[in-house]
């Protein structure tokens, strides 16, 4: 094999020299894997409760004054720009210093602090910016933590188990979010008087929920922090930490090197950015479509969200084995194809009532998680050894760079529907489904040209880290 190909050789089990050679390669429920996956379970407090169902709804309520929704969008867009600019640099720094666990710890603690800080956001206009800045800061810290978390995947898995390990993490993330959401809904949000006599007066039910989220994130992050140990690089590597400008020069050189050595990695980063934005759009606009097109009440939307996440979580864990058996590309292609078909059927049968959305909407949810998880394992198998954090930083950057696509396609498709049918925007809302489908289709077409490495379909057994 020539030096060019060696430079991009896959790195599952790259840390095998420090691992237990007696560990059974087919076993995934080792303690390091479990500890790693529990971070996904804990992070659901920020994803499912704070940014999806509870705090963002609270901060955009009438109590915070007019225009809170648009202000929220601009603030989170600014956070996205910062993530896109700095995520690959933070990953590169962690790779060079061998301090992934350290930076995972630091950024997770920042998420915990931001979550707890939301307790002080009272329902009044003068607290709007406090809430938005804490939310944006939490988003930035969460994304930076995720870069280092994702980069650990190769340390705890082998080429034949990486799909199941990744699927376990994604699945526990979904299920953990639902467990916490149900606890919050029935213990604090739904009853007039919740546990410990907490009520909705002065937003106390939501504010106490933020403290619970902070504690949840912290509790389930401790196992991976204590289990996956940093292995610092040599002193020469530590001494050669580049400055900010030099880091960007190295980043662009990384992209150029990846392009020259293996265009597949670059093509995959582009393709995955597109279809991952489409996957995010399914959840972002799923509740909007359920309520606006199929007549779901607010309570029905929450119940559907609970069921949808359970379905997605179970499916993600189950599809992990299929990932290892068939390879991640086949899983992604299958998932995107099925989602495109289900979404098209939702468009044509939009007048069929709630039953249609329950059936076809849950079919969509079956394939969201597997596509997300397989995307992570696909990249993990392409990354050059020792550069996992840097490339996963690029993974975060490319995803953020096109995060406008699904919202723009959704809104544009509705305008097309208005022009074609003569209906009002509310009546033509179901056309937005076609916009999400288009993004998924473009991502699928881009993915088809990406060629997996040979080991995607063969079991290259290397022992994982066992703690």
From TrEMBL:
Keywords: Membrane, Transmembrane, Transmembrane helix, Transport. The keyword Nucleotidyltransferase does not apply. It is a multi-pass membrane protein. Gene3D superfamilies: MFS general substrate transporter like domains. SUPFAM superfamilies: MFS general substrate transporter (SSF103473). Its main location: membrane. This is MFS transporter. The lineage of its organism: Bacteria, Bacillati, Actinomycetota, Actinomycetes, Micrococcales.
